[in-house]
Design brief:
- The protein has 490 residues and is α+β, with helices and mostly antiparallel strands.
- The longest helix is centred in the first third of the chain and has 21 residues.
- The chain folds into two domains: 259 residues, 2-methylcitrate dehydratase PrpD, CATH 1.10.4100.10; 142 residues, 60s Ribosomal Protein L30, Chain: A (2-Layer Sandwich), CATH 3.30.1330.120.
- α5 packs parallel to α7 and α14 crosses α16.
- It has 21 helices and eight strands.
- The strands form three sheets. The chain has a four-stranded mixed beta sheet.
- The relative contact order is 0.14.
Length: 490
């Protein structure tokens, strides 16, 4: 093993730092720990992410990144959509931005925080392509990334301290990249230390008023962590005591990470979920309730007097007008997909929440603007702090995150009331997507952007990814989707 000048004398046995324990987990995990059902789930989540990657390519905000990358550099051994060949770090950034920007990707929900595990996919695609690796290699690294990020969300919920969940993403993507690049345990520990001290963003990027950066922030972490891993491969050293050491996570955030990484358990992946609706994850059960009301009763939206949503505390805070700020002032895509009043109003009017519902001309039409102001979001209990006490008083909050309880009451001007309650939604781990559901969403996201033949080729490769090289997938994705609605010259 390479000797590091920064090694401490107590780095053995029970005195290992969390970065070292995490590094040992990364080093020891192999494909044998991935059960068949989790393997299939990972592939479904990959297909789901690729749908967003394709759909995002005509988004004006994403094309701003196209211009920026083109202005900086070109060339490299990674073939990418729109931008052609890029260096592996820029490819990691670009793939991540495409997957993340639509905000239609997967989630993991902990009691006090959440994350998007598919943020990890972009750098893994770029690296696997650059290294000439197989789908089997990719899926193993994906399992490592998903496990680490989800475990950190449960054990170190930094969002309650005002830090963004991409703080935890920096560790998971760095760990998975170290696996692909075959770094040693100590090289991996140092990479984790460098990543952990370099990326500590604030969750205000997701608060109101929400701007384009919400959809691109993780791509900058991807770019940085890719470079950190390549530096660690050259034996660059970093603060491996980032969790426990002076001025580390434990001191600064007053949060101690305690997790046994010696158990090669990746079963937490089963609790990763997919979205049925193109909106923030905590809106999903309310949206399913509204859609069922629309299908069963077809209420005249012009005759609606009020809409009352009773939900759990996290949904209220993030998308309902709580501590994350006002969610009724909505005039942009990023604010709209994090506004429960907007997405509830638009699904009653349009019958779906997909990217078309976030075009600015749709957001600013009078019908949805008027209806969203009739939506009131609240919790059962007026007590919101401290969380354990609030949960004791509020059955909706107490049931979270095992359930996403919601109650929707629509009052019509004639006095009629329509009520619908939900505990979860289709896509949650209690009612997960199967292959038919995932393929249906993928086709709906990409219709008109790629040919039917390309669609079927992508599905076939991902369903049998273990038998393909990653380059086979990325070569297909390099082909530019048709019908770009935004000119590169704009």
């Amino acid at each position: 093993m390479t000797k590091y000048k920064s090694d401490q004398p107590n780095l053995s046995g029970t005195n290992l730092y969390q970065t070292e324990r995490m590094a040992q987990f990364v080093h020891s995990v192999n494909a044998n720990v991935i059960s068949p059902d989790i393997m299939e789930q990972l592939k479904r989540h990959l297909l789901d992410a690729i749908g967003s990657l394709i759909q995002a390519q005509h988004s004006p905000a994403v094309l701003k990144l196209v211009s920026q990358i083109r202005a900086l550099e070109s060339g490299g051994n990674c073939q990418t959509p729109l931008l052609g060949n890029l260096p592996v770090d820029r490819a990691a950034q670009w793939y991540t931005a495409l997957i993340r920007y639509p905000d239609f990707m997967d989630n993991f929900i902990g009691k006090e925080a959440t994350c998007h595990p598919s943020d990890n996919i972009g750098p893994l695609l770029a690296s696997s392509q650059s290294l000439g690796l197989t789908g089997k290699d990719f899926l193993l690294s994906m399992a490592i990334a998903y496990t680490i990020e989800c475990q950190l969300v449960e054990k170190l919920p930094v969002m309650i301290k005002g830090f963004d969940h991409t703080v935890l993403y920096a560790y998971s993507v760095t760990a998975a990249l170290c696996k692909l690049y075959k770094l040693s345990v100590m090289q991996t520990a140092h990479a984790l230390g460098m990543a952990g001290t370099s990326f500590v963003p604030l969750v205000t990027s997701r608060a109101s008023y929400t701007y384009e950066w919400k959809g691109l922030a993780s791509s900058m972490v991807a770019l940085g962590c890719m470079n950190i891993v390549l530096l660690a491969r050259e034996n660059m050293t970093g603060p491996i005591s980032v969790f426990e050491g002076p001025k580390g996570i434990a001191q600064i955030m007053d949060m101690k990470l305690e997790h046994d990484w010696s158990v090669n358990d990746i079963n937490i992946i089963r609790k990763c979920i997919l979205k049925s609706f193109n909106a923030e994850v905590h809106t999903q059960s309310s949206l399913e309730a509204a859609l069922e009301i629309r299908q069963e009763y077809n209420p005249d939206c012009a005759e609606i007097e009020s809409i009352d949503i009773t939900t759990f505390l996290t949904a209220y805070h993030i998308v309902g007008g709580g501590v994350y700020g006002d969610r009724e002032f909505v005039h942009s895509k990023e604010q709209a997909d994090h506004s429960l009043p907007y997405v509830l109003a638009v699904i009653l009017l349009d019958g779906e929440v997909y990217p078309d519902q976030f075009q600015e001309e749709r957001i600013n039409q009078p019908d949805v603007q008027e209806l969203l102001r009739k939506v009131h979001v609240d919790t059962v209990s007026p007590m919101h702090k401290p969380l354990p006490f609030a949960g004791f008083l509020d059955p909706y909050t107490d049931a979270y995150p095992e359930k996403l309880k919601t109650k929707l009451v629509i009052k019509m001007k004639n006095g009629d009331k329509i009520t619908k309650e939900k505990d979860d939604y289709h896509g949650f781990y209690t009612r997960p997507f199967d292959w038919e559901d995932t393929i249906g969403k993928f086709k709906k996201l990409t219709v008109g952007l790629i040919s039917d033949q390309t669609t079927e080729e992508i599905i076939e490769i991902i369903k049998n990814f273990e038998s393909h090289r990653v380059l086979e997938l990325t070569e297909i994705l390099e082909a530019e989707p048709v019908n770009h609605a935004y000119s590169f010259n704009n």
